[in-house]
Specification:
It contains 19 helices and 6 strands. Helix 7 packs parallel to helix 10, helix 8 packs parallel to helix 12 and helix 11 crosses helix 12. The strands form 2 sheets. It has a 3-stranded antiparallel β-sheet with strand order 1-3-2. A 3-stranded antiparallel β-sheet has the order 4-6-5, with no helix packed on it. About 1% of the residues have low confidence. It has 470 residues and is mainly alpha-helical.
């Protein structure tokens, strides 16, 4: 949706012959002229600011073409019209006085460009700690700070984008280094760009004593705890509904669950991204090390001289007279075991002995089997939920949670997860069942929670027949 909100000619000043001047002028207007002003500027004040800024630039740097005036007064008006026509500035009248302000959508773009121009970088520790702080704030006060959960999910996406961008920037720089024919220039790129910009500022922070990922387990723990607590989910959903971020309570609760699941998935799945970054670092360090080891030797003719000396030694002592003394003297040292390559030691035979027969205590085997059975009994799977609901929805279309009897512990294990089937298992059950929150409470001696309604979603063929009949 970016280019449907921005003017069609917005990037024309940034691609023209005077793009350096235009970019510097836009950043100057955003930071110094408009700044924190709440009201638009008078047109006369803006023209004066453009004229003052243009003093330090030559005519060739300011002009887009030959039609750009040379006179400073006319030239500042031409630059002003250039920004108006491109869509950066908006001119209107207030009480018959012409005023100018940044276009709202263009202002968002110039703020991002200003951030890039300042060289602002996000550290791993700051991003992870921001997510944890916002998540803890939302869980500690869900009724008043539900917006903090949205901020935590947004910060998680931003952090993941930063991590992906780091790996992409490293790969791009690796290609530049490998394509560089000059070895000195390649080394300069490696140490000045790769090491100083990426390894030191970002990557090396992962291997320090203050590793920012020490907060990762806290984020996963807090998000998982909130996702399993119906009271916290309901309070966060009420906050979203009260502050107008959702149309109804069902959409608000779905929004809360989606944010929590997204935070969990991001911080539980960071290892492949970190492995990708580490792989680029290792590969490039190995190639730079090999280039340093096998770069051009200082004496390129030493192989030929060594071969000539060996041929002379093989022919006899009389032929050594014509060779320089330094090369021959190196060959007259005593030759013995210290100078010869040691033969490889014979491998020792591997001694082995048969493993003793170990008798496992039947009580231990029974305990392991009981643990496996208990784990299977408390694990909720999609098939188990489908079998549970199909048995109870066989004669009715929908069923209230307060009307579902709980006969034993196995039924309770499945029942307590029914309110989450729209987000459980990546939403695979959403196509078969629909859950909605209704007034009332479920209080059956096993569980006390808000009431809900579950109904079976009609199959596609049934929906089409119903549509034709209607």
């Amino acid at each position: 949706m970016l280019f449907t909100h921005l003017a069609d000619d917005l990037f024309r000043p940034l691609a023209s012959p005077s793009r350096a001047f235009n970019a510097a002028l836009l950043l100057h207007l955003h930071a110094r002229v408009f700044g924190d002003a709440a009201e638009p500027l008078r047109k006369s004040e803006l023209l004066a600011a453009i004229g003052d800024f243009s003093v330090g630039w030559s005519q060739a740097e300011i002009a887009d073409d030959e039609a750009t005036p040379v006179d400073p007064i006319e030239r500042r008006s031409a630059v002003f019209r250039r920004l108006i026509e491109a869509g950066w500035l908006v001119e209107r009248r207030e009480r018959y006085v012409p005023v100018v302000d940044f276009d709202p959508d263009a202002r968002l773009l110039i703020e991002e460009l200003a951030r890039i121009e300042r060289g602002e970088t996000r550290s791993y520790g700051g991003a992870v700690l921001e997510v944890l702080s916002a998540l803890e704030s939302a869980i500690a006060s869900p009724a008043d700070r539900s917006e903090a959960l949205r901020n935590a999910a947004k910060a998680s996406r931003t952090f993941l984008g930063h991590l992906r961008g780091l790996a992409g920037a490293m790969r791009k720089l690796e290609e530049r280094i490998l394509r560089e024919p000059d070895l000195s220039a390649a080394f300069r790129l490696y140490f000045e760009e790769f090491v100083e910009r990426h390894l030191v500022s970002d990557y090396r922070t992962l291997h320090t004593r203050f590793n920012p990922f020490r907060f990762r387990s806290g984020i996963v723990r807090e998000a998982g705890r909130a996702l399993r607590d119906p009271l916290t989910l309901r309070a966060l959903a009420d906050g979203n509904l009260r502050e107008g971020r959702a149309a109804d309570i069902t959409a608000a609760e779905r929004m809360v669950r989606t944010d929590l699941v997204e935070i969990l998935s991001i911080f539980e799945g960071l290892d492949p991204h970190l492995d990708a970054v580490a792989e680029v670092v290792t590969r490039l360090e190995r190639r730079i090390s090999a280039a340093l080891r096998y770069r051009d030797p200082r004496d390129s003719a030493r192989i030929e001289r060594a071969a000539a000396a060996l041929r002379a030694v093989g022919a006899g002592e009389d032929d050594l007279a014509g060779l320089p003394l330094p090369q021959v003297s190196l060959l007259r040292t005593p030759i013995g075991p210290p100078q010869l390559t040691n033969p490889r030691m014979p491998r020792r035979l591997i001694e082995y002995e048969p493993l003793p027969e170990i008798d496992i205590d039947p009580a231990i085997e029974a305990f392991i089997a009981a643990k496996d059975a208990f784990r299977r009994r408390i694990t909720v799977t999609p098939e188990r939920i489908v079998a549970y609901l199909d048995a109870r929805l066989s004669q009715v279309k929908s069923l209230r949670g307060s009307d579902i009897p709980i006969d034993d512990v196995d039924a309770f294990v499945v029942f307590q997860r029914l309110r989450e089937i729209d987000v459980l298992f990546d939403g695979v059950l959403r196509e078969r069942y629909r859950v909605a929150r209704i007034e009332g409470r479920v209080s059956n001696g096993w569980l006390d929670c808000p009431d809900f309604m579950i109904e079976r979603v009609p199959a596609p063929a049934t929906r089409r027949r119903a549509g034709k009949a209607g």
